[in-house]
Task: structure prediction
Amino acid sequence: MNGRTVLVTGGTGGIGTAIVRHLARLGHRVATSFRDPAKADAWGAAMTEEDLDVHIFQGDVSDLHSCEAMAREIETRLGPVEILVNNAGITRDAALHKMGHQQWLDVVNTNLNACFNVTRPVIEGMRRRQWGRIVQISSINGQKGQYGQANYAAAKAGMHGFTMSLAQENAKFGITVNTVSPGYVATDMVMAVPEEVREKIVAQIPMGRLGKPEEIAHAVAFLVGEDAAWITGANLAINGGQDMGW
Ligand code: NDP
Result:
């Protein structure tokens, strides 16, 4: 497979970078969004050094108008988005009785409402062209809940509801829609957790280690490939065995 136009949101982050790199190495033109220009410039320069066909676009996934403008710019510069990975995400942890309204809104806007904001501007084009791939990056904690993460777990669980509905609406247009639910992966998001808490998390993982961003990227690449055309509405849990619910 080669030569598709891809948008990976949050591509400058830990998992996002691995997804961008993997899809670009497969021969795709990969766009990603950024908010922080200084971080994005340094990141873009590193990708160019690796000789990857990667492009950065300003875009706040929590803002519909920003996403509409970003989709238009990507289409002008690279062509219409054919593969979309809704990966950008944040945490703002607190037990609900201590959680501020803004913490709730920020997390729901950036993880869940972003799926609407980013997907809505590109879905009609995918339907017209009769081909598309959409993957939501959810989380193990959307499946099982987590102390201190009512906002994040609710948003991440909602992402899979979005996946299943979109999968039904778009199957006959050659579009597959799936969710990948990573467990704890060694990125800045997880390394920011205090070490003693991280050790307790690792102790709950049968594989005995955190995941690698490349292991998530590999699964995404599989799901967006031509050969995965009959996989839709699925949730692929990748968590070292920490949660085996089905
Ligand atoms: P990082 O914190 O490393 O990266 C997050 C990325 O999202 C950054 O590129 C960031 O850009 C971007 N981003 C955040 N808010 C916005 C916004 N409003 N608009 C545009 N971009 C935004 O996270 P990870 O790589 O660890 O996580 C990636 C995804 O995987 C997330 O959805 C996360 O919830 C999920 N996940 C991660 C797990 C883990 O263990 N790491 C486990 C399970 C799920 P910027 O820096 O410019 O804000």
Observations:
- The mean pLDDT is 96.
- The two ends are 30 Å apart (CA to CA).
